[in-house]
Design the sequence.
């Protein structure tokens, strides 16, 4: 999964532009009664879809600026509209998380795939994907946190939390297959059993290490994107202490 450091500057997502001004979005018009096949229904649906995309973009900018804990009221205020409009389109905050997540995760998935396609070897591909992932997550840690964490579970948003889980699961499953394909080809059919388990373990390591890295305050000891991507790649390809392979394994047999 290569996302961040090696490709020190992959094209940055159109994640929130902190210098842009959030446009005031007009209030939702009321649909005409008895819409029929004269085209008004189609135009109304198109309007709703465009409006929904505008709200997702506005929410993304707001979360980038305000933080992943921003309330629906704060997000709506930053978007220049009312909280009721967001509830009308997304149901609750978990629904908004899911909607923003679908956009962000699909963009990350595309950039990771593009990074992998330019690589010449399995290890280069893995490094490229990890670099892309870290770079895009670091572009806006607030947005990344907003779309990858679960909303508090209660009677009103259990469905939304399940949707977030589903979106994340699909994203990481697709990345697992991306990193498995070149490794499977490199190792050959005889190592199929190993490849069967490795991608899931690799995704867990990349995500856990990457998110801990993102949340670590800047300091001289904190590696930059490129160094962190190289380190994670080395852990996945070689291990943390390859010299231990040369040591005999002691057992208690015979005692």
Sequence:
């Amino acid at each position: 999964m290569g996302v961040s450091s090696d490709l020190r500057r992959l094209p940055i997502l159109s994640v929130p532009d902190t210098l842009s001004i959030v446009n005031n979005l007009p209030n939702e018009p009321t649909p005409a009664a008895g819409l029929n096949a004269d085209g008004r229904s189609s135009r109304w649906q198109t309007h709703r879809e465009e409006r929904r995309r505008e709200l997702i973009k506005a929410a993304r900018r707001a979360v980038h600026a305000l933080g992943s804990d921003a309330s629906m009221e704060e997000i709506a205020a930053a978007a220049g509209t009312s909280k009721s409009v967001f509830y009308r389109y997304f149901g609750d905050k978990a629904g908004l998380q899911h909607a923003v997540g679908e956009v962000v995760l699909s963009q990350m998935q595309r950039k990771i795939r593009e990074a992998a396609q330019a690589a010449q070897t399995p290890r280069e591909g893995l490094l490229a994907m990890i670099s892309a992932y870290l770079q895009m997550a670091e572009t806006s840690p607030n947005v990344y946190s907003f779309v990858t964490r679960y909303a508090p579970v209660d009677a009103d948003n259990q469905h939304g939390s399940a949707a977030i889980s589903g979106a994340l699961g699909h994203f990481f499953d697709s990345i697992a297959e991306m990193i498995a394909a070149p490794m499977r080809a490199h190792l050959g059919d005889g190592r199929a059993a190993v490849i069967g388990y490795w991608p899931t373990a690799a995704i867990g390591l990349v995500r856990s290490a990457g998110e801990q890295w993102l949340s670590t305050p800047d300091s001289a000891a904190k590696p930059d994107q490129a160094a962190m991507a190289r380190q994670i790649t080395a852990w996945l390809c070689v291990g943390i202490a390859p010299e231990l392979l040369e040591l005999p394994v002691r057992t208690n047999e015979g005692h």
